[in-house]
Amino acid sequence: MAEQTTTSLADRLRARFEERIGNVVERLGQTTIEAQPLHWLEIARALRDEFGFEQLIDLCGVDYLGYGEDEWATSEEATSEGFSRGVEGNSAPGRFNWNTRPRHGQRLRRFASVAHLLSLANNRRLRVRVFAPEDALPVIPSVTSVWPVADWFEREAFDLYGIVYEGHPDLRRILTDYGFVGHPFRKDFPLIGNVEVRYDPEARRVVYEPVTSVSPRVLVARVVREDSRFATARDEAKDEWREN
């Protein structure tokens, strides 16, 4: 399939799907669109058959709960203590509080499924985000009928985020065990987990127990920000260069 060169991919997608897609963005040479879940299967088939996106590279889940918020001190409040800044978060340490959860105006819905597509014929990549209509039970149509390789990807997103892919031929856990409680990649899942396991020599089996050996702590910053120390070092280097 020869791709049109006079019109950008984003414009062609807008013209083809109209109100069925939204938030069309072109950045860093890649196009991202947001597809309506009701029309996701129809859009997926058209992307494969009409736009040449014959290959699904990746599919994953996303939890936008607390999007844009952080638990570390900001650059204005940061000290020279480095990693220790993250030992105690701004929220309740290690436990998510649903009643006081952060809210972000740009993300009114919580769960999304993101597909990364590749057109070998046109040397194009496309990212498609599909938000689940409901947060309590996130349901999104499965695209295994369009790209069979989505099978294990959707199982992984179901396991880690609890996203139900309607129409999936065998939707069950793939990374955690069958007795696992909850979905570990959800933002409100406790960082230390719900239970821990150990081998009981007397019972001769693995037993599940409440977590007692791990203390909750904040390990990673949840937003990307420039370290103020680097900015200071750059300014000092500039001053030294001017003096010399």
Please outline what is shown here.
19% of the residues lie in helices and 23% in strands. With 244 residues, the chain is an alpha/beta fold. It has a single domain (9-243), classed as NADH:ubiquinone oxidoreductase Nqo5 subunit (Beta Polymerase, domain 2, 2-Layer Sandwich), CATH 3.30.460.
What is the molecular shape? flat
- Unreliable spans: 83-96
Cα-to-Cα separation, first versus last residue: 60 Å
| Strand element count | 9
- Rounded to an integer in angstroms, the radius of gyration calculated over CA atoms is 23 Å
Class by alpha and beta content: alpha/beta
Q: Output the helix-strand order.
A: HEEHEEEEHEEEH
CATH 4th-level superfamily: NADH:ubiquinone oxidoreductase Nqo5 subunit
- Residue-averaged pLDDT, rounded? 81
As laid out across the biggest beta sheet, the strand order is 1-2-5-4-3
CATH topology: Beta Polymerase, domain 2
Give the secondary structure arrangement, pairings included.
Layout: H1 9-17, E1 21-27, E2 30-35, H2 40-49, E3 55-63, E4 111-119, E5 124-131, E6 139-141, H3 150-161, E7 164-166, E8 195-200, E9 205-210, H4 228-243
Parallel strand pairs: 2-5, 6-7
Antiparallel strand pairs: 1-2, 3-4, 4-5, 8-9
What would you say this structure looks like, in words?
The chain has four helices and nine strands; from the N terminus they run αββαββββαβββα. With 244 residues, it is of the alpha/beta class. It has a single domain, classed as 2-Layer Sandwich (Beta Polymerase, domain 2). The chain has a five-stranded mixed sheet. Strands 6-7 form a two-stranded parallel sheet. It has a two-stranded antiparallel sheet with strand order 8-9. A hairpin with a 4-residue loop joins strand 4 and strand 5.
